[in-house]
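Narrative summary of target 7.
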Amino acid sequence: MSRNINENLIVASSPHVTDKITTSKIMLDVIIALIPAFIMSGIIFGPRAIIMTIVCVVACIFFEYASRKLLKRDSTISDLSAVVTGVLLSFNLPSNLPYWMAVVGCFVAIVVVKQLFGGIGQNFVNPAITARIVLIVSFATPMTTWPIPERIFSAADAITGPTPLGIMNMGGDPSTLPSNMELFLGFVGGSLGETSAVALLLGGIYLVVRKVISPAIPLAFIGTVFVFALLVGQDPIFHIFAGGVMLGAIFMATDYCTSPLSFKGKIVFGIGCGLITMMIRVFGSYPEGVSFSILLMNILTPHIDTLCNPMYKMEKGGAAK
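Modeled conformation, tokenized:
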């Protein structure tokens, strides 16, 4: 009888606990949460914003399918993670970026960052964030040329100008900065998905209500930005609504496989992202630091988990507690 029981045992890798919540359901919720920002990107930047998002999504799906095929692995395009990566990457790009450059970013995100490390759940940094940084380093001028929203509907070659953070970084006249309400609504220059704070906030509330994300990282991230701005005598609301803080804090820093597991770890992670973001904004030569802060904290995530998870702590005698 014992022999029959042993023969029925199945050896498999974790996880061993099953649940009705699947990767595709989680990704679908993220896509739904991104719809308000997607709509606002079309309203603010015009049809090219919609096309840019579609190009990125299609390219990410293609690269995921092709790379899995070449590596002789099962197809994973049905889990919708490639769609989410495509949308998030497009939201980090200016609407006037050449499409082929966006496709290069998709290749980096899916093939280099994700699939070469084993696929979803195996990458140690956020694919869309990493791809954006690679594009900034490789194509600095196109990646920092921002269309002015008011002209995007009426001009084939849109008038471009600096973002609000760019104006501040260059020491421009504060009176030329948009109001906090304009930043909240999103009618300013910038990447597709980072301009409308209200659209991102709606998506974030949806994800929290659906229990897709914990509010710990977004609140710690945004709260740190707020406090840091106060300490250096700058407008905290401006720093929260301008640039990629809302997009990064809600949709990118909360990535399951690149953020800490424990509640304490999430708080440390969010605070770290906020501190690095503001140090780059205030003291650095580059006007925005969200992408770099999330990437750096992604690298530190295993160490944060080790320090903040009680299961990993060791007593002086060397025994695990």
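The radius of gyration is 21 Å.
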